[in-house]
């Protein structure tokens, strides 16, 4: 066990954090298997360990209950004040005062509660304007701690006094947030930098609140059977992230990884980390001059399009959540700045999280199935995403999903936002055995926060209308087996090719900024002519056979009808199908391709010789020829029999095709 002096923070030692790759659902379940290390809050390489925290505070009854009663008393007096305002009809008049009181309460209670206030400060659809204005101050306008402590931390961490390390350093912090405060400085090499210094006694405040909230989560899960969500896991996820945020070396590594993954995106900027001047409690990074996205007048005065930067943020977030899985879990307005040259700068990389590959694919599939109102598949997605257990009976859930989302969507899925989705889902969460997995809490927090910023810029902002083009592009271009299988399920149902779904995907994907239609066509052709594409080839061949056969029959009937008309005789033609033919669909798709930016048919010319020599191409063509020949032969036999046996005339139905057996694959041959 390692313990360090805590004299600099003025607090007693508290547990450090040791987090395994999997979060623990409840301390009782793994107390025997985990070695408990109770570390000082200033120890290096802190990691979240709820077991260590629980053991530390179990013997401190007075400290824990003192905190609980303090929080309860503060909020109860605030709620009584709100109740009295309603009774005296003075809610509107006293709203600015109450908003300021709430900000002061959250500030007094410390970092865990400040984080809640920061999240609320981005929700104009939930919080009145007076509260928004006050809560926005929690982003970077909290009371600072004394310079003497900050400068002593710099000296302890970097090994020398600030005036010896930096050429310049502001004599007061320019911003103060929940975990630290920021000074503006200049290195002796000339670069302008931001120097972030951690607040003293931070771990002491946070661990006590996390312990109390976690115990409440354990109690709630045990005593309220209707709560099926993993509240304890959600608290552990939040605790792990917030303790990582207290290690500035981890934040520096996060910033560099974020820059590597997303810094190349158009108009996304990530500041540089200066490692020579960075340690656990001090972070030195490139100074960014910028304006919060919520300060619309200032942004517009600079000639910057705030709506465009919101789009940049949405596209970047989609890649964070659905492509690489490494995402910014705290994108409040203080961490997203519009730079003078019109770029979106990301700051504060302390609270980051990851989405596993199967979760990323599951989210993409869920969006696709939601947009296409495929509620059977959507219910299966909830199983994959761990909202439902595998043994859950989905039969009653599917119509419930259809009813809820049909009411919420009101005509078009692209017009729904994240808040609408969560609100509508809450209607069935308690009726059926849904549970919110721990990993999902930070995802929804990140999306809801970003959506709140977007709504402030554009009240009509709809997240799915912005997200679906990217999702459609991923579905068409991603070569992963999971998404290829999802694309196959989307395009084929009961052996029929759903051309309208393909048209919808192509129409939406062309609106994605980095969509390369030529790459899509090349990958599609390669996949179709691979062994994995055999199922699609067989089904597509059947559709082509049906389309050509139907077109041929219609053409023959039109000629026959014209001849009878010239002869002055009546002719009862068979009823023509009202469904669009395969040729109609193909022509519409060709039109879509031609309208797609960047489409160049000449890039496909070199592929033609490669396609023609493939044996799969020959089998595909042979399949179509054989199918057409069989249908023609069957029709000829029926015509001959009809002439000799009148009883068979009722069987003459030109709309009933003959199923053509698929040719065996080359591996079978």
TrEMBL record:
Protein's UniProt name = AarF/ABC1/UbiB kinase family protein
**Protein family membership:** Belongs to the protein kinase superfamily. ADCK protein kinase family.
- Region entry Disordered, spans: 648-669
Give the molecular function GO annotations.
ATP binding; protein kinase activity
> InterPro entries from the xrefs?
ABC1_dom (IPR004147), Kinase-like_dom_sf (IPR011009), Prot_kinase_dom (IPR000719), UbiB_kinase (IPR050154)
Record keywords: Kinase, Membrane, Transferase, Transmembrane, Transmembrane helix
| Translocase is among the record's keywords | no
Q: Does the keyword Transmembrane apply?
A: yes
Q: Where is the Protein kinase domain?
A: 168-497
């Amino acid at each position: 066990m390692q313990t360090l002096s805590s004299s600099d923070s003025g607090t007693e030692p508290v547990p450090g954090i040791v987090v395994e790759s999997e979060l623990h659902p409840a301390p009782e379940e793994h107390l025997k298997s985990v070695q408990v290390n109770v570390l000082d809050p200033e120890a290096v390489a802190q990691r979240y360990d709820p077991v260590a925290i629980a053991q530390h505070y179990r013997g401190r009854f007075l400290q824990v209950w003192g905190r609980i009663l303090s929080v309860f008393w503060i909020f109860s007096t605030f709620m009584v004040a709100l109740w009295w305002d309603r009774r005296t009809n003075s809610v509107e008049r006293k709203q600015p005062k109450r908003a300021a009181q709430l900000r002061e309460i959250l500030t007094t209670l410390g970092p865990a509660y400040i984080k809640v206030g920061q999240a609320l400060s981005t929700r104009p659809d939930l919080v009145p304007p007076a509260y928004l204005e006050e809560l926005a101050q929690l982003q970077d306008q909290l009371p600072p701690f004394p310079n003497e402590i900050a400068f002593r931390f710099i000296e302890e961490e970097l090994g020398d006094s600030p005036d010896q390390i930096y050429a310049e350093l502001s004599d007061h912090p320019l911003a103060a947030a929940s975990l630290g405060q920021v000074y503006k400085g200049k290195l002796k090499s000339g670069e302008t930098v931001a120097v972030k210094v951690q607040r003293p006694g931070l771990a002491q405040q946070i661990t006590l609140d996390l312990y109390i909230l976690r115990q409440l989560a354990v109690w709630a899960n045990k005593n309220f059977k209707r709560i099926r969500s993993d509240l304890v896991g959600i608290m552990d996820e939040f605790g792990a992230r917030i303790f990582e945020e207290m290690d500035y070396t981890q934040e520096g590594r996060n910033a560099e990884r974020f820059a590597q993954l997303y810094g190349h995106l158009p108009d996304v900027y990530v500041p540089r980390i200066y490692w020579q001047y960075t340690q656990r409690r001090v972070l030195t990074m490139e100074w960014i001059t910028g304006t919060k996205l919520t300060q619309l007048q200032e942004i517009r005065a600079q000639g910057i399009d705030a709506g465009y930067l919101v789009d940049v943020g949405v596209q970047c977030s989609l890649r964070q959540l659905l492509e690489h899985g490494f995402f910014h879990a705290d994108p409040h307005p203080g961490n997203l700045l519009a730079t003078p040259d019109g770029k979106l700068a990301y700051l504060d990389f302390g609270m980051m999280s990851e989405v596993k590959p199967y979760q990323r694919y599951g989210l993409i599939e869920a969006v696709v199935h939601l947009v296409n109102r495929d509620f059977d598949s959507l219910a299966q997605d909830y199983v994959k995403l761990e909202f439902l257990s595998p043994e859950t009976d989905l039969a009653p859930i599917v119509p419930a999903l259809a009813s809820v989302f049909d009411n919420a969507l009101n005509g078009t899925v692209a017009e729904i936002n994240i808040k609408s989705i969560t609100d509508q889902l809450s209607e069935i969460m308690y009726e059926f055995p849904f549970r919110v997995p721990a990993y999902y809490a930070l995802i929804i927090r990140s999306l809801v926060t970003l959506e709140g910023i977007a709504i402030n810029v554009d009240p009509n902002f709809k997240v799915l209308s912005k997200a679906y083009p990217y999702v459609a592009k991923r579905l068409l271009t991603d070569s992963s087996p999971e998404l290829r299988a999802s694309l196959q399920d989307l395009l084929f149902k009961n052996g029929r090719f759903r051309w309208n779904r393909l048209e919808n995907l192509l129409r939406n994907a062309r609106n994605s900024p980095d969509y390369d239609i030529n790459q899509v066509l090349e990958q599609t052709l390669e996949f179709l002519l691979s062994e994995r594409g055999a199922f699609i080839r067989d089904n597509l061949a059947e559709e082509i056979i049906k389309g050509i056969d139907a077109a041929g029959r219609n053409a023959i009937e039109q000629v026959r009808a014209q001849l009878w008309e010239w002869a002055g005789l009546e002719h009862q033609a068979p009823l023509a199908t009202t469904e669009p033919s395969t040729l109609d669909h193909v022509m519409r798709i060709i039109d879509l391709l031609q309208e797609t930016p960047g489409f160049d048919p000449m890039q496909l010319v070199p592929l033609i010789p490669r396609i023609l020599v493939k044996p799969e191409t020959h089998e595909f063509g042979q399949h179509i020829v054989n199918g057409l020949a069989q249908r023609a032969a069957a029709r000829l036999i029926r015509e001959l029999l009809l002439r000799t046996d009148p009883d068979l005339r009722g069987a003459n139905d030109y709309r009933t095709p003959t199923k053509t057996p698929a040719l065996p694959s080359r591996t079978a041959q």
